[in-house]
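Reagents: none. Just compute today. Membrane protein.
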Amino acid sequence: MSTFLYKIGKAAYDKPWAIISSWIVILGIVVAMIGVNGLNISSEMKLEGTESQKVLDKLVQELPQAAGGQASVVFAAAQGERLDTPERLAKITEAINKVYALEYVINPAELVAAAAQGGVSADGDQAAQAATQTEGAQSGKAEQASPESAPAEMPPYMPLMIDNVPVPGVLIATDGSVALFQFQFTVMQTSLPKGVTDSVVEAVKDVEKDPGIAVLPSDSLNVVDIPVGTNEIYGLVIAAIVLVVTLGSIVAAGLPLVVALFGVAIGVGGAFAISSFVTMSSITPVLALMIGLAVGIDYALFIVNRQRRLILDQGLSAREAAARAVGTAGSAVFFAGLTVIIALCGLLIIEISFLSLMALVASVTVFLNVLIALTLLPALLGLMGERICSSKAREKIRSKSADKHGVADRYVKGVVKYRWLVILGVIVILGFAAIPATEMRMGMPNGSTANLDTPQRQSYDAISKGFGEGFNGPLLIVAEPKNPTGTISPEMLGGLVQDIQKVQDVSVVSPLGLNQEGNIAILSLIPKTGPTDTATRDLVQDLRAADSTIAKTYDVTLGVTGFTAINIDMSSKLAEVFPIYIVIIVILSLIILLLVFRSILVPIKATVGFLLSILATYGISTAVFQWGWLSNLFGFDTGGPIMSFMPILATGILYGLAMDYQVFLVSSMREAHVHGHRGVNSVIHGYDQSSRVVVAAAIIMVSVFAGFIFTHDIMIKQIGFALAIGILIDAFLVRMALVPAVMALFGDKAWALPKWLDRILPNLDVEGDKLIAQLNAQDAVASKQEN
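Predicted 3D structure written out:
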């Protein structure tokens, strides 16, 4: 491997413009594809195989309009004022009629009229659901007060009436302070043509011409954008400063930044280029940007730093040093990148399409950064030539004392001396940090966790206050006879509504109709509790239970779908596959590190260290985002559940990145051991050689990830925080403290490997020993020929 990469590095150095031109052409193709296809991102998160998705898919086939996206608008009066004045009701009704007149919005009046004229068709009957929403609300109140129902207070809302005629889809609080307008599209929001939601918002915003009314559209009406702002630049600025300090040259420091930006431009740009052909969530390119910037800068830093050390320490020419740097540090970069790619691709086992796409796009971006670091970087070094090291730097190294790593040397000797104390201290600290993870609650962010000054939060709070928190997370119930030839009569549907109304934590049940064949009944259910509450999750599970009293009484199966049910299923599925993913990560870690380090102990130590750091990451993330610790510092108001796929996503990414530092740090210790340093001396010598660049790389990576913490999107905020704190813990507590302490504890035994295993394992030559030996032999032959 190292010999092959050495040849690539030398070829790229000698013919820089051929390599540079090739990469520029590739970037040009990507830009051209974006220009032709445009940018298309979605908020859709499809969960294949889950109960809610199965129900939704069935509705798309049988009753397409029932599967259409839902949205709502809240009209809120100013403090102490009311909405139900004639003038304000006229404005609100006018805005609602404008919305119903739009294409792709179900118009209840037209559909009821069509059903009355031509009989009730599948579409007509189902689409008339919007017209019966008010009736459902009224019947729900009546049922709550009936003798058969559990005693309940009358809800603090009623249908909005104009001239004694209910306005379809609109409820108003009895105190007149807030009105809720709920409506449905004919298709899912992700399938709506551009501009439809904008037209809806524009229509309802006319009401705000009255200064006493606030119009708050639901989240589903917001235009999906790429959640990236200017805060990410701060991370790059810190990275640039660290590069200058580490490399001692602005010119040298610029190369890793150029290489990383080139890599993410092609990787993320390529993702956008295909976004017209695949459904891509807004998080996908941002995740690729995060990882691509971090690994791109770090990988280029390792190679540039190695080249400069070879020039300054061994007096090699820039050409030879660049080739050797690609052959040695480049080998470590290749295997480090491989671990990140394998960890990300491991997410494919979850079989959730949007997560799989995120993993694949991020993996391709990492792969591109590895290729660019091994080809474009040496080409750029070829253009730089000997200028990569200034005469001032060369003079400084000649006058410098033999102890080149004074601080690192003193630090690692202290760690080695007090190794037992360091080991116990790190374990205690990380164990304590992991404690909050025992109470980690997973879900999806919603209006209840948005900042107080956002329309999403104001809408959520207004709905909760005026109608009940459950109105923020309605459920769609689909009832089907267990007997394939069975049907559901209108009387049976009425009985279902009444019995479901009696279930604990159910607020309102509204019948939405039957299909033409009579074998599918649709109901709308409003829980008493919020979308992320445990009681709502339990309610969904109880309704689905095949042995429930309702299912047995009516001989039906009840399917539950809707945004709330989908989020519940996502959390359940991810929690189910998470242990399997952890096992896969552990096995991969052991195999890859066994091949790289040819040691039994080193892989075990590295994996245990990673598990400690990831548990601590979960704990700290829970304390911050769920408990709300330091929330003001990180730019959010209210704690809430940890995003469902954050733990499994963070595990895969952090595993790969943690192994990067393991490879670069411990490979130096192995190199010292191979070259004759024994016991703790190999640990100290290897640490001295690599600690400076590993610390710089870790600071850069933390800075890049931390820049995403201050974005407005809570999902990106959580991912950025978890990755930043995870790298901070793993790099500085595990790799820079625990690893040298454990290595010193075992000494030369750390490199023990059974002979039979040594024979069958391939020698990957990550440290480049074979390459160096070959080059030394060539130098000796050349020297003899000259003499």
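The CA atoms of residues 16 and 379 lie 4 Å apart.
Action item: order primers for follow-up constructs.
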